[in-house]
Design brief:
The structure is a homodimer of 62-residue chains. Chain A is mainly beta. Chain A has one domain. The first copy, chain A, has no helices and 6 strands. Chain A has a 6-stranded mixed sheet, with no helix packed on it. Chain A is globular, with a radius of gyration of 11 Å. The N and C termini of chain A lie far apart (30 Å). Chains A and B meet through strand 2 and strand 5 of A and strand 2 and strand 5 of B. Strand 2 of chain A pairs antiparallel with strand 5 of chain B, so a sheet runs across the interface.
Chain lengths: 62, 62
C-alpha cells in the first residue's frame, strides 16, 4: 500500500496531521484528506510538495 | 516503491506526463517533478489532487 503521511508546514516546523492518507481532493479553498480508514480531515491551504518514495505529503496553510 | 504516475488534467481529459514520480517541488509558479530515474519535468500550474493508493498525482495547468 502506498498511502502517505500528511504534514502541514508552518515556518521551520512540520506538523503531522494524518497518517495513511489515500486521497487528497480540492474543496472550498483547501483540500480534503481521506485516509485508508475512511477518516477525513480538511486543510485550508495548498499542497506544497510531495515526496512519494518517503510516503510524505506536505501542505501549507493559507 | 511508492512512486506515482503524474497526469495533467485538461477539461475532461487526463494526459500522462511522467511515470515513476518521486518528488514534486514548488518552483516558479509551478511544480518540478522528478522521477526515480532522475528525470525532471516542469509543469506551470497547481497540484489538483492525489490518489496515492492508485499511485496517481493530478496536476492542473494554470
Amino acid at each position: 500500500m502506498c498511502e502517505a503521511s500528511a504534514y502541514v508546514i508552518d515556518g521551520e516546523n512540520q506538523e503531522l496531521i494524518m497518517e495513511a492518507v489515500d486521497s487528497v481532493e480540492p474543496e472550498d479553498g483547501g483540500y480534503k484528506l481521506i485516509n485508508i480508514f475512511g477518516e477525513q480531515k480538511f486543510v485550508k491551504g495548498t499542497i506544497h510538495s510531495l515526496s512519494l518514495v518517503d510516503h510524505k505529503v506536505y501542505l501549507k496553510k493559507s
